[in-house]
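Support reply, case 0932

Customer input (verbatim):
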Amino acid sequence: MRAVHLVPAGVVLLALGAIGAAASLDRPTASPNPAAVTRQATVTAAARACPPTLGGGTGTVALIAGQAGSGGSGGSGQAELASLPPVGVQLQPAGAISAKGPGVLSLLTVPAASSAPGKGGKASKSSKDSKSTKATSEPTGWSVTASGTMAQAMEAEVAQSSGLASLRCGEPGSDIWFVGPGQSSGAAHIQLELMNIDSLTATVDVSMITDAGPVQAGNGTGITVPPHQTVTESLSSAAGDSSVVAIEVHTSSGRVAADVSLGGSARGRTTNWLPSAAEPSTQLVIPGVPPSSHAAELFLTVPGTADAKVNVLAITPQGQYRPFGSQPIDLPGQSASSMTLTPLGGTAAAVAITANVPVTATVLVPGSGVGAFTTATAPISEQAVVAGNVSGSGFAPSVVLSAPAGAARVRLTEIRASTGSAGSQVISVLAGHTLMVPVTAPSGTKRGAAFAVVITPLAGSGPLYAARVETQDQSTVVSIIPAASALTTIGLPPVSDSYAAITP
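Our regenerated output:
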């Protein structure tokens, strides 16, 4: 006979509260099964974390909150940035930074955090040592939170002062992956930023796989990230002289947002952000591989112990084909490897990957610094938003649209900064094809000024994948932002009046 489990009333109430809070969670990576959804709930809360500015100093966050393109329509709510100071450093207090109204693009300047006088925020013992009594600039992360109307379709990105975005500010999670080049491929310095936007302490384990197999990630076990703080870890020594590095950030308690920066080398390469890769899966679609004078590079990792058979499909303006032939690529378990995408032939593409076991991947496109990266995304639901785009003064943004299964009709809406005024165009994408569409700032936008782009699949469209690509001087790729769904509503699964879901 099955044992009877008695559940304390407090546990039941806690679980029911968690179920009721589902409507205010951040964007899911995929929509629930439509057949299991009983109602739609409005998104009322959203949260992200932006990493410290590369090189220190002030930075910029491109933020659009509220229903994108609403032009400041009514509704209550707020969106603001708050600092996540580095652990162990006492900082002078900094006030929160608020965004503009709903549907309006804001370029928010985040100041460099200043430590209190003296090392670690303590006064120096020697008054003669003037250097030790001066406040110093400290790299700090930033949380981005929105509530009410402002939480709907929120998008936040790390940007240059011009507003050109280089990285989406990440959602906190419990398992985050990165795959990219190692030191022998130009990433001389590899640095991990861990940001805790919650009120509970997070405990993080960091593991790595290189082209030589699994390696010990230094002091990567049991890293404590206190609430509302940032922890920085160097992974350079652990990576060794590898050509490929896969990094897993896993929390045993709490959750964090994580970002990885790849530093320059003796050849003078600058530092770039490596965006997080998709959760390992047997099916991935990486959008936004633009034409380039040099071949892009595909970085793959097989995190499990079972060997993988990987198939790669290119989705191009001319249709679909297999750049590495019809035979699957054999990769051993717990491996990281790279493949040159020379067969793409300098055309825009999305890369679809299927495998018999879960894998994850990133594509590196040669360009400024180490290069620009694009990673797998889910098909766009409702709409996607890229906040930080600039045109003119040598810069040219485009949206790369891919429809691997069915044809798609897409509305591209460009939103001017500060005013929220917009222009739009409707684009058709053939099934099994990719289309690269130039976008420009709305009429009246100052030359070189930032604007946002909203990507909206129209009714009846097949699955749509997209990314924004920014080039400089017509040929150099300087930024790729894979487009992720920016939801205004989420589907709630049915809930029955039974304790079965929460009993042990």
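We compared this against your earlier run and they match. Two observations from our side: Confidence is low (pLDDT under 50) at residues 1-32, 119-132. Residues 9-20 form the longest helix (12 residues). Please reopen the case if you see a mismatch on your end.
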